[in-house]
Amino acid sequence: MRPPAEVRERVAAVHGGSALPERLRLYDGWAAHYEQDVAALEYRAPHFAASSLAIAFSAPPAGARLLDVACGTGLVGQELYRRGFRCLHGVDGSAGMLERARSTGLYQQLWQCALGQEPLPTPEEHYDAVTVVGALGEGQVPSEAVPELLRVTKPGGFLCLTTRSNLSNLRYKAELEAVLETLQKQGAWQKVLAQEVEKWERATSEEESTQGTGYISGVVYIYQKCPVPPHKEG
């Protein structure tokens, strides 16, 4: 069963080729419907990302400072909070989305920032973890913005990234993975996890559906910034 037509239309609009100001206007308008729409899509990226990141931490994450990039209405923040993260900061390009995120009460600080168009408004090597869930895709955050995420991550800190594997995002996914591999070859970080998830969310068209399942797949990547602290013997 495909998602309702109005949901498909809103998704198509924000993933279209419009210029940034128009795209942000669309996200502002979508904020009020966003959570019910992604529920209709059975969008599970926040759950998979938060679970994967929590596993990567060897110690309880309550004291870890985390930046949720493209935080939207705060769905990722909610999943992180459930897993013990308490020091959450967020950025998003949409004022409407940020208003919703602020209403959750989960974020200690929130800023408006369009990653890829401007630098993140935070100091270097400031965060124990950085997440970008849902925004790394065609028509969204450009793959060349990934090094900016590394800039604000502490050495030894983790970066959790996701992207979709549907047909219309395959070119972007290939570009993103080339950037990820180049950074690893340069010794900037090391891969901890790359997990393909079959039922990432419901497909918005038959063409996008993975082998007629009605869903598209996606990937969670976890990287650790170098130098990685030596393991401490207990």
UniProtKB/TrEMBL annotation:
Taxonomically, the superkingdom here is: Eukaryota
What the entry lists under InterPro entries is as follows: Methyltransf_11, SAM-dependent_MTases_sf
According to the UniProt entry, its GO molecular function terms are:
S-adenosylmethionine-dependent methyltransferase activity
Q: A Pfam family in this protein?
A: Methyltransf_11
Ranges for the Methyltransferase type domain? 67-160
- Protein's name according to its UniProt entry: MET27 protein
Can you name the source organism? Galbula dea
